[in-house]
Structure formats: structure tokens, C-alpha cells
Amino acid sequence: MYKEDFIQLIRELRAMGHCDSKFVTLEEQLxxxxxxxxxxxxxxxxxxxxxxxxxxxxxYFKKMLFIFSDQPFYSTHxxxxxxxxxxxxx
Length: 90
What we know:
The chain has a domain at 20-76. It has 90 residues and is mainly alpha-helical. It is globular and about 45 Å long. It has helices spanning 3-15, 26-39, 43-50, 54-69, 73-77. Helix 2 (26-39) packs across helix 4 (54-69).
């Protein structure tokens, strides 16, 4: 992900009312989610990478997942392709 896109996503999340927790910044919360999604590595590896407990990693992954899959983020940013742009094999 480009740095500018990451910063814009953080701005969007803050505008929706999301903020840092007591010990984990919103940037780190998003990083945990993105790193886990992109790498597909086990939680044990993610725990080691971010130096956080398994519960912390799990909590913030789920938090971001729910943010991205719920309103208003989902309806604002997720668009399904029209029939013409979908490849025939799909």
C-alpha cells in the first residue's frame, strides 16, 4: 500500500470517529490488519512481528474487519463491478 493511501485511510477512519486506544495507535491497529491480510501468516508470526499479545492482535484484527465490513465504510467505499467489467470466466 502506498504511504499516501495509508494516510488517507487513517484520515477516513478518524473522520468516522475511530481513534487510538490506550496503548495501540490507530495506525498500528490498521497495520496489524493489513499485515495479517496481505501475508496470510499465522497469528504467532504477527504477534512476534508487532510485539503484542495474541489477544491484542486478535482484538484489533477483528475491530478493523468489522469497521471495513459495516456501515458507513462498506457502503461508501465498496463497489461491485458492473456486468460488463466482469471477465466471462468469472
